[in-house]
Amino acid sequence: MLRWVFCLCAAAVAVAQPTLILKNGRVWTGVPQRPFAESVAITGNSITAVGGREVAKLAGPKTRVIDLGGKFAMPGFNDSHVHFLGGARGLKEIDLTGACTIEEMQRRIRDYAERHPQLEWITGAGWEYNCFPADRMARKEDLDAAVKDRPAFIRAYDGHSGWANSRALRIGEVGRLTFNGFGEVERDALTGEPTGYLKEGAMSLVSRHVPRPTRETNLQALEEGYRLAASLGVTSLQNASGDADTIALYDEVRRRGKQTARVSFAISAGKKDAPLNDYAALKRQYADEMIRVVGIKLMLDGVIESHTAAMLDSYSDRPGVTGEPNWTAEDYNEMCVRADRLGLQIYTHAIGDRAVRMALDGFDQAVKRNGLRFHQTHKDRRFRIEHIETIHPADIPRFAELGVLAMMQPIHADPGTIDVWSKAVGPKRLTHAFAWRTLERAGARVTFGSDWPACISFDPIRGLHNAVNRRTIDGKPENGWIPTERVSVEMALRAYTSSGAVASFEEARKGRLAPGMLADVVVLSQDPFKIDPIRIHETRVLTTVFDGRVVYQRP
Fold it and tell me: DSSP state, 425?
């Protein structure tokens, strides 16, 4: 039956001349019954034929034809968890990614400050927890040595901690103010003075004083971010944060004709009295194939590295410390019920195993208290848990039972960044770390994203490499890092394409290459099914097609 559908569409396209044909390639369609093809025909922004040489013959005098020369093509990458505007703005700031000595960090910071004498504040991101000495974390004195004349504030690579110099701490009055929210101001054990290391919400003591970018600066940042996304083959973004003003910025870039990736949004709902009716109105306002609002984003806990993720048992390197949730169970459950009743999809950040259990409990409450009045089946709700870095084995089957999507970030499990993480969770819980394969085997739908800029790389190829290998790029250690959780190339590609489309209720239009689907296609320099998996990281994007248009070609 499927073959007939493909052939019917191929014949129909004779009436509507294709605008673009990709021919002579190895095309992974993502369609299980017909996973590979040779050519793709596109008319306007939709795929009209997928098949062999007969598709290439559909070209007319106005058809652009790209000969793939045997190269691998696939659906565009769908980053299912990203904070895109923040990442785009960060492209103009200090990047400490890969700087793993204090001296190298200071050099980069000093060089940046010297090149930007006009900046009132020096800001950036990218430092890693394991790149500081074992007995301490980032300190103000380290940052003072790089920049003294201006306040400086630099976020960790995961976005959950900050590093401030002395001037920034004074401006934020951090030494005088008491912080009682979710997070911590680290203080010197002898003097009681702030060290410059701020966790979670405590970062706001300093960050709220950083000058806000203008609207035009934000618009330019988004345009630059889209150009980067196109160069990486990312044609869909699921933004795990946002508000009405932010979404309006994306809408403006769309009107300017600069959008090169489809974007869905979950509105940040940080308080129990959040105006959910307003968010439901935004969902009705933005509901097309370019920009859509799907639901809300809740933060249940922090991260393992700073001991702010909510754990069922104490951290191995901090006896007695379990990390506290950002919500009470009662308030979180009530929020889930209210949001679900309004038809809002629920994203929940949950990294610790306690937080993951709380998230599942909240979704269970929504199902029980709302029944099926608002959904044909509870699986249509498509509840989401973001990150799931640790999980108790008893909670694994609940994902399939409740229809909860597991939104995970392979880049966070990069073996080059997990030393501090592994020490914190300890050997017993380590066996359930980043349990991609286990969740998939248990019937959960696993999707992949980057969490950019809260990661060491926005590139989905790096994430694909981690998912398939669970080992460092140089192949060491040879046995991998928890190799039982490696996944197949096919599963990883599905997690970056069709599963991502399901997560935003768009599987009928994207995530696969088939007639009637949106024409978002990426061409790669290597075939991940054929090469040694350890070489996946060497793969580059050659061409990106978005909405039927070529938006990137590698020079």
Answer: H
